[in-house]
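Narrative of activities, Objective 1.

The group set out to show that a structural description can be obtained from nothing but a protein's sequence at a throughput compatible with the screening campaign. Below is one input-output pair from the validation batch, recorded exactly as produced.
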Amino acid sequence: MVWQSSEYYYNSTTFNNYLMAKEWIRGLDGLNLKLKRETLLNYGKNRWGLNKAHSVGSTSELIRTCGPSKYEEWEHFYFTQAKQKKKDGLPITREYIQGLGQTLYIKLSEVVQHELEQITDPILISATMQIISAQLPACQFIRDSLMKKEIS
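Output recorded for this entry:
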């Protein structure tokens, strides 16, 4: 069985107890969009805690408890056993998970988009110059150390 979640396809026959193989699809930007999209998705999930136990339950613990060999087995177990840690142990439903996805979309499309629009060339140039400037004390220390060795 192959199921679709937004733009990724997951193959349940390759679940292999803990990991599912991902098959990347062709999109507007070409094949293998992992770096571009996964980086942004991971950033958003981590920033707003959407992948934390308080939002999606203790997934690692649940996987160990279930020990699934098929995706369907894991999916059924998850939606019957997973509880929200932040909401007095309310069950996690498909609708709740879809809501987390919608929250992530709103955060990325509104909050992050607005933040990106605030970045200008002078800000990026200044930030890059700060990287170089931060190295100056280390360079001075090395130079001073070398000069002391030459004197001794």
